[in-house]
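Possible regression after last week's pipeline update?

I re-ran a chain I had predicted before the update to compare outputs. Posting the input and the new output here so someone can diff against the archived version. Not blocking, just want to make sure nothing changed silently.
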Amino acid sequence: MTRPPTAAQRRVIDAADPVTGRLKGTEAQLAALVKQGLAFRHPRPPHDHFLTPAGHRIREAAPEAPAPAVAPPPAPGVFTARIGGEEDPPEGAQVAGPSRTREVHSAWQGLLELRRMTDPHGATERPCAWERTHLVQAAALALEAAGHPPAGRDGAGGYRVRATPQPEAVAVHTPEPELLRACAATLEQAGWQAGEHTEPRTRSRYLLASPRRA
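New output (post-update):
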């Protein structure tokens, strides 16, 4: 990228699908984003445009304007996978029930489509670039889409997905050995490699998982 996106281009980037990065805009706007390395045009019909990893970073970067005294509520309609042990969700957010199940299923299908459209051979077996830059959310989405229960606010039961100091690796914690093994199997089926480890201080078992490259 040679220069920051214009205000109009930034609006197009901010309106991108939060999971797939699919863009909507005028041909001139999309072509300009492609030229700047913030988007790419898929070679297969219907030739939609998607954010590149650089475009995703722009979308998630804080705006340069001074922060307001009171932070605004999260934008409605933005899907976020449950990583387990979160604080209370924003008012109106769906965390359980049929609506949440539909949201999770739609987000997972969208991620598989993103894999297909960004893989040179149209394969969906391996994680895509978006997942490699959003490790915790990507792993949590795979687990939630498989029906595994995330831990509650108190951390009891269910899984918790956390970042680690290791590059391209997340940790999955749960006090339930059977769930830990089930999470490992789910992540492996979703294109991750996962192995059990022991925390030296507490001796508790956890998964260390990272996206497969081949």
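Follow-up from reviewer: compared with the archived run. DSSP finds seven helices and six strands in the chain. Marking as no regression found.
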